[in-house]
Specification:
The protein is of the alpha+beta class. The strands form four sheets. The protein has a six-stranded antiparallel beta sheet with strand order 8-7-6-11-10-9, with helices on both faces. Strands 14-13-12-17-16-15 form a six-stranded antiparallel beta sheet, sandwiched between helices. A five-stranded antiparallel beta sheet has the order 2-1-5-4-3, with helices on both faces. Strand 3 (about 70-75) and strand 4 (about 80-90) form a beta hairpin. The longest helix is centred in the first third of the chain and has 43 residues, at about 135-180. Mean pLDDT is about 80; it is low at about 320-325, about 340-345 and about 665-675.
Length: about 675
Amino acid sequence: MNLSIADITALTEIRDSIYGLTKLDFAIYNHICRQLVPSIAEDHLSLIGKEEYNNFIKYGIENSLLRSGISIFKGPMHQYQCFIPVRFGDAVLVLAGTSLYISDKDIEEFFSAKGHGYGLSLQDQKLWVEKISWNDIASISDACNNIQRMVNLFLSDCYEKHTNIEKYRRTMTVIDLLSDIDQDITEEKVFSLLSEIVTLLYKGDTVSVMVRTIDKYVPVLTNGRDKEKVESVPIGSNNVLISDAVNNRRNFICSEPKELMRLGYPEEVRSLHLFPIAVNGKNIILLCVFNTELTREDVDTLSKTGIFIGFILKTIKSQKAYGKHIEDMAALNLATVELSPSFKDTDALFDSIVEISARHMNAEKASIMVPQDDGQELFIKAVKGLNRLIADKIRVKIGEGIAGKVYQEGKAMIVSDIEKNLSKKKRAHYKTGSFVSVPLKIGSETIAVLNLADKVSGEIFSEDDMEFLRSFASYVSIALEGAHYYRMSEHLRTLSITDSLTGLFNRRYFDDRLFEEFQRAVRYKSVFSLAIFDIDDFKIFNDTEGHVAGDDVLKSIANVSKESLRSIDIVARYGGEEFSVIMPLTDHDIAFQVAERLRENIRDLIQLRWEKFPNENITVSIGIATYPKDGKDIRTLIDNADKALYKAKVSGKDRTVVWTESLSEPLKDKPASDKTF
């Protein structure tokens, strides 16, 4: 597991956040006991017995990795230390807590047994007892369990988001590389491009492209660390594994040393991923990737890339005899470029596919059909050349008709005469009986069907047209897969900045935006205000009405807040029953007015029913601080807003207080709507 500077920074923030929430200090280690992030304060026990302390930490890490839950071990100095393993993806980290004592008896036993050996006196023992804060094992265990869940959720979310972004990046890079291919490209350049895709995007250790002679496959291009060991090794075409892969057009992996030696490779070759690339019916190219770990998604994408490469190579072989193939290649490249801007919006992507395919096929009518939610029928998602009102009424049962069969079987179909081939009367809205239908897929799953009809020239669709559409559909599949990964990454991003209960921004997003607003105010010498508000007597409400009712209150306050605040204001759930609002370009006078409107709306508009809660209304108390008047740095601004909130609480609740230096004076009763200066 290789961590970047950004990863280390994130782990440091996790450590600081844990300390801020629990006052428990942790260092973070990887699975081989290398420290990635130190604890905030150096453990004082490591200073008096460094080697013994470090050995204990190593012991704790190694043993905690054997367990799924937290571990609390007693150390050589009679101290207790907790170890929290966190797993995400294929990685594992361990949070190692600093030393804790649960009673002065442990210290007495340590000093009695080992104190002299460490050069510690009775006076040192007294100092230890005076300085150490005692901890309860049960409460520490509960806190560590919560920390483990929180950190695991955060890191898993980051890992999944990173993985999806990486998939999307790879997919788009492949599209860009293939889109840049021009009609003058040679087989050698294609092989080089294929090698670069595997080496750069999939970290291929060694890559070899092989072509078939009479009875064997011979390497024509090899790159990578073990180039010299594999570039002179041919593979016999009669080998059972090779012939099975070639005949069935499927990839395979071989990691058996005996089988690799039987193929002729030295012992340095530990694994082989083989991808057959069909150029035409009898001509097969082999892409061989050695000593490289590939995920299932990697293998799937490389298989699709092989389809593109096979098409390109076939075009190259045929270009001298078939000039039309060159035109088709250029059209495919143009179509891919035209599709690229639409990948972020699936609806726009479908519209682009219809428009581009109709233009390049000279078809008057084109449509894309997708399944309805019940999965029984197809309906038209995008259309060209047909009235939208008519199109919206068309339904085709899956398995019936041309489009229904193509969707069910996942195979393209071309029909020269609908009446002759399918015994169907030609529909009035089609001029000719010629029709072509191609499945659109993500991976092996068909998600839609592309249909074209009515050539402008009146001709029927030919096999050349079908060949073009099959290739175009392959390009479209990568675009659809890219759009799928993009939507997933955007969804994960939304989840990462949103509080799941209230739908408001979460504390992490709030901290980022507060920093941005502070930087903007410093740069442009402008003002902004920060409000922190808290639900009055919320603990009593939860105790009397239950947590489900408490959640309803939090949701209601979130909804009222979004309706009451201005469009420029940023409201977030700060934590528990506490919320925060950033008010850009807002001084304390306006901030007070905005906050009062929010407070009054919460009191007046939330009409939830409760049985035992003694208060008549749900109310909040609000504290406000304004930059730069009430604080010239973020920490001071937050502290002063929090102090103003506290003043509002102790002054009777259900009120707004603006921070001033006078808050240190004795409290005075004020009406709920008074502004405090």
